[in-house]
Amino acid sequence: MVEVLRGPDPPDHQILRPESSARIHTVVADEARGRGVGSALLTAAEQYAAGAGIVHLSAGIHHRNSGAVRFYGRHGYADSGRSLGKRVTA
User: Fold this and answer.
1) Is the separation of the CB atoms in 38 and 71 below 8 Å?
2) Low-confidence ranges of the chain (pLDDT < 50)
3) Could you give the C-alpha distances from 7 to 18, 42, 53, in angstroms and in order?
4) What would be the CATH architecture of the domain defined by 2-74?
5) pLDDT number for residue 10
6) DSSP per-residue string spanning 29-86
7) Contact 59, 23 (CB under 8 A)
8) For residue 84, what pLDDT is reported?
9) pLDDT digits over 8-26, tens only?
10) CA-to-CA distance for 19 and 13, rounded, in angstroms?
11) Residues 59/46, Cβ–Cβ less than 8 Å
12) CB burial readout 1-23, b (16+ within 10 A) else e
């Protein structure tokens, strides 16, 4: 499966990435890996995004997920900054 989660349109004052963007997420069953399924899903998602006016896709993957890092890297995805996070509690 693949999903393209479009972000909100950037406000006029946006300075970091003033363009339409989305996050992409792919999942391929273990038994289907290595058969081109993920590549076909990614291609379809990118075509959908381009047709929808989305100009930037990001794949939020953990750096320790070496298989996903290699997969997206083979398809032209590269580091594009750093996302910092913090868990908060009440």
Assistant:
1) yes
2) none
3) 12, 18, 12
4) 3-Layer(aba) Sandwich (3.40)
5) 73
6) -GGGTTTTHHHHHHHHHHHHHHHTT--EEE----TT-HHHHHHHHHTT----------
7) yes
8) 80
9) 877 777 666 678 889 999 9
10) 11
11) no
12) ebebeeeeeeeeeeeeeeebbbe
Please name which of 47, 58, 56, 46 lies closest in space to residue 9, comparing C-alpha atoms: 56
- The owner of tokens 């083979």 is 74
**Residue 25 in tokens:** 């997420």
Six-digit token pair at 73? 């890297």
Q: How far apart are CA 59 and CA 41, in angstroms?
A: 13
Confidence at residue 75, expressed as pLDDT on a 0 to 100 scale: 96
Q: Which of 82, 77, 85 is nearest to 25 (CA)?
A: 77
Cα(57)–Cα(46) distance, rounded to whole angstroms?
8
